[in-house]
UniProtKB/TrEMBL annotation:
It comes from the Archaea. It holds the Pfam family DUF2004. It comes from Oxyplasma meridianum. Residues 6-121 form the DUF2004 domain. This is DUF2004 domain-containing protein.
Amino acid sequence: MVKNVVKISFQTNGDENNEVAESISNLAGNEILKKIKVHWQISHVTLGEHVFYRTEYTLEGTKKVSRETEQEIRSVFDKYARMDLNNLSQKYKTAMESGSFKVVKAQEVKEEYNLWQDKLFGLMGKQGNN
């Protein structure tokens, strides 16, 4: 399966979860955008009892993300995710005041578990038990 998307799932602590998720994802996205044509989407995901965030960075004009590019995207994202909350907030505020900063808002997403079972593997398992 060819993919041109880098998906990063994460959780935040505190009361300002959407703001933190948006700050990290948007700062990283804008930094990556300086080198690579990329679009991103931030999701606040509810999956059963679990709640988390997922940011998807989609590369424009490519069919597959190279290992090096994926590592670079994750590295930039991690740099912001590891920042102190006050420093992150200040950096985000300053970046938003610059005219060319792209802001993407988190979207609420409800997902369900996909508990499908492959019939071929089920048949193979039955044959091995004879």
